Structure to design on (747 residues):
């Protein structure tokens, strides 16, 4: 007796989790790659698309038939061939019916099948009807001629074609997109005539290069009339490598003062483009535009009207900005990754794609001809036996009437085959008329001629090549059309700078003591009369233009900047600068300036130090600002003073003790940042009580206004002569009663 204990079997297999996960993921990956996401090179279809078209042909939904409910088709597809979700199947059906999605739609849909504005707004399948389009014949026409292999469906009760016998390279005609596991595909659509022309070129010259084929295939041809602006050399590189990108741009025209967009890039929604443009208008980034309207209808599927504020607006410049900032110009990825004849996914260039498809077509035509030849030879064989029966009709009748088993007797008497004997026995009496012999001989002659022709083609590669070529040209003549997407050489679109888009208008920028900023239109604004929040008051105001930057200096000497046109209106209290910038904790804003980048300013501190710098050094994009003025402990930033001329202007500084000094601007150094040189001398003993109140720059012909309380004293350029001295000296003392100065201004 064997004492070996056998392990119990519990109805399942135990394997390591790592091995199971690896196997399951690999199986899933291969399924997604081969049976769901990537198309087969031969017919250019994914399995679900192939099953939909085959199921519709089985339902008799040809181009000449009456359409049936889409739900009927979807039911047949998922019930017989594709056991997946009905919504996904219906979406695949709808996609093949949308003329804005497919260059050559395979399905003729009746009802709401979506729109270019919202491709997924199609009605439910119980409401729509569908049938095949005439061009679907290119995929199905030879299906019953022994041209494809068949495989059992998912439950083994039916058979379905493993591919369709495409007479044209459908893969390149309608293109495809798909995401598999670890790979994806993006094949753009092309023009039928161009693709057939390239195939004919390859048939005539098998050594033709991709460059040669690009003489025929000039580029993709999308369902829309938007321009393809990708340079020709980039398109050629794309076809040589099988990957790259294509850039499409909307087309527009002028109608009086308006700009009308007449075509959008492939799969671009008009409503999305309108929203993108409207968002820029709301953000005041498109002051050139007054309004935008969507006037699209059945007669004009795409008609977006842009209404400029003025007839002087340059349409090309405005549209160039919109091309760069909206979907009016769009780039499409190209990755010609398909399942080849060997059943493996691979990225193929144009020549390989067409060469492999032509090999597929040669195989299909050969199978079709051989299938027909087999049928002709079988028919001739049967006719030969039938003719023998006619020539010996009395003997045949005697054998049939007299023999219990007439079939073996007929075979033995006349040397017939089983098929011939069966055919004779199945012949109807009315076919035994005398005229039938003539019909048989006539049919034999016709079939013999056809057999000779078929054998001649199958035995001669040149004749086979000519047949394939003639069939390609015939289909091109029947289904071909003109190119829709024009190929146009265009320069790259450039987004306009904000300053180019903003109208140049005078503005007065006002900052309050607590750091609230606002801007008023015009230079005649008296900032002191504006209303301020409770406990707040005017700090400073400067005049500039809406196209300029405004710089703000804080108590640490850092500078921050923003565009003047983005500041809030002076009708309200404005907004806090801390909402735009990120100063150090405890820092407060103390001064501001505005001007062009090349404008020069005197930057100074209340301790009497300063330098000349270009306004560009005050600006930057960093929210935390940039270091500009180095301050000694206890010093404040003084309001910057704009310089008109470096040669003739004078710098004027005044202190709280009434000391005023004037000296040539040229005596101050020009720096990018730093502490600067001494402008006016303030004794160390008085630094705690005396400080610089203001700095101004006065040119010849200008007048300096010295403010003290409610009083103002005017000093002309000539009057300043008695206060002119060397830089870094004490300067002159203002008259008695004017030694408490509040500020300086220049008129």
């Amino acid at each position: 007796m064997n004492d070996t204990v056998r392990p119990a079997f519990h109805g399942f297999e135990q394997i390591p989790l790592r091995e199971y996960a690896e196997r399951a993921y690999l199986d899933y990956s291969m399924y997604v790659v081969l049976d769901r996401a990537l198309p087969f090179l031969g017919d250019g279809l994914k399995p679900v698309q192939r099953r939909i078209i085959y199921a519709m042909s089985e339902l008799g939904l040809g181009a000449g038939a009456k359409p049936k409910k889409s739900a009927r088709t979807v039911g047949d597809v998922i019930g017989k061939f594709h056991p997946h979700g009905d919504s996904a199947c219906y979406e695949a059906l709808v996609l093949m019916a949308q003329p804005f999605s497919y260059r050559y739609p395979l399905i003729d849909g009746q009802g709401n099948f979506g729109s270019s504005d919202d491709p997924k707004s199609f009605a439910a399948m119980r409401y729509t009807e569908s049938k095949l389009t005439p061009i679907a014949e290119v995929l199905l026409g030879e299906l019953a001629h022994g041209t494809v292999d068949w495989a059992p469906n998912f439950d083994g009760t039916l058979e379905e074609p493993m591919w369709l016998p495409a007479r044209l390279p459908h893969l390149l005609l309608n293109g495809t997109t798909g995401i598999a596991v670890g790979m994806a595909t993006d094949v753009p659509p092309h023009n039928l005539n161009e693709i057939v022309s390239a195939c004919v070129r390859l048939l005539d010259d098998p050594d033709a290069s991709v460059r040669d084929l690009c003489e025929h295939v000039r580029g993709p041809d999308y369902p829309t009339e938007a321009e393809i602006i990708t340079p020709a050399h980039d398109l050629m590189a794309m076809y040589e490598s099988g990957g790259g990108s294509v850039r499409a741009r909307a087309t527009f025209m002028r109608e009086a003062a308006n700009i009308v967009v007449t075509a959008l890039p492939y799969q671009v929604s008009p409503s999305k483009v309108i929203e993108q443009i409207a968002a820029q208008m709301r953000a005041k980034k498109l002051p050139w535009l007054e309004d935008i309207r969507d006037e699209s209808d059945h007669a004009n599927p795409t008609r977006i009207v842009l209404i400029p504020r003025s007839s002087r607006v340059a349409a090309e410049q405005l549209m160039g900005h919109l091309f760069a900032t909206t979907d009016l110009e769009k780039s499409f990825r190209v990755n010609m990754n398909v399942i080849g004849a060997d059943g493996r996914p691979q990225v193929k260039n144009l020549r390989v794609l067409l060469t492999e498809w032509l090999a597929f077509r040669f195989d299909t035509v050969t199978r079709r001809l051989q299938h027909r030849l087999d049928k002709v030879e079988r028919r001739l064989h049967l006719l030969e036996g039938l003719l023998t029966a006619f020539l010996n009709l009395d003997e045949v009748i005697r054998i049939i009437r007299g023999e219990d088993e007439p079939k073996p007797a007929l075979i033995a008497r006349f040397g017939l085959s089983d098929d011939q004997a069966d055919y004779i026995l199945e012949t109807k009496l009315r076919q035994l008329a005398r005229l039938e012999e003539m019909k048989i001989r006539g049919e034999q002659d016709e079939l013999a001629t056809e057999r000779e022709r078929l054998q001649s083609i199958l035995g001669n590669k040149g004749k086979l090549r000519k047949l394939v070529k003639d069939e390609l040209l015939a289909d091109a003549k029947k289904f071909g059309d003109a190119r829709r997407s024009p190929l146009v050489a265009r320069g790259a679109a450039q987004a306009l700078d904000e300053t180019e888009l903003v109208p140049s208008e005078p503005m007065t920028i006002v900052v309050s003591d607590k750091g609230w900023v606002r801007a008023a239109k015009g230079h005649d604004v008296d900032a002191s009369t504006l209303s301020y929040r409770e406990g707040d008051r005017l700090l400073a105001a400067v005049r500039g233009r809406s196209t300029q930057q405004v710089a703000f200096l804080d108590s640490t000497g850092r500078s921050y900047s923003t565009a003047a046109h983005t500041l809030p209106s002076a009708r309200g209290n404005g907004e806090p600068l801390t909402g735009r910038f990120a100063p150090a904790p405890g820092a407060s804003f103390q001064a501001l300036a505005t001007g062009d980048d090349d404008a020069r300013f005197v930057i100074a501190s209340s301790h009497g130090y300063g330098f000349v710098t270009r306004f560009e050094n005050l600006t930057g994009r960093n929210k935390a600002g940039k270091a500009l003025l180095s301050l000694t402990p206890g010093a404040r930033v003084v309001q910057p003073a704009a310089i008109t001329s470096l040669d003739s202007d004078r710098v004027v500084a005044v202190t709280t003790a009434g000391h005023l000094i004037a000296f040539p601007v040229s005596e101050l150094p020009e720096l990018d940042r730093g502490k600067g040189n001494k402008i006016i001398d303030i004794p160390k003993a008085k630094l705690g009580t005396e400080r610089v109140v203001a700095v101004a720059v006065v040119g010849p012909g200008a007048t300096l206004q010295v403010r003290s309380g409610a009083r103002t004293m005017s000093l002309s350029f000539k009057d300043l002569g008695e206060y002119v001295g060397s830089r870094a000296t004490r300067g002159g003392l203002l008259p008695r009663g004017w030694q408490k100065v509040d500020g300086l201004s220049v008129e």
About this structure: The chain has four domains: 38-166, 251-327, 367-479, 502-746. The first helix runs from residue 17 to 37. The chain has a mean pLDDT of 91.
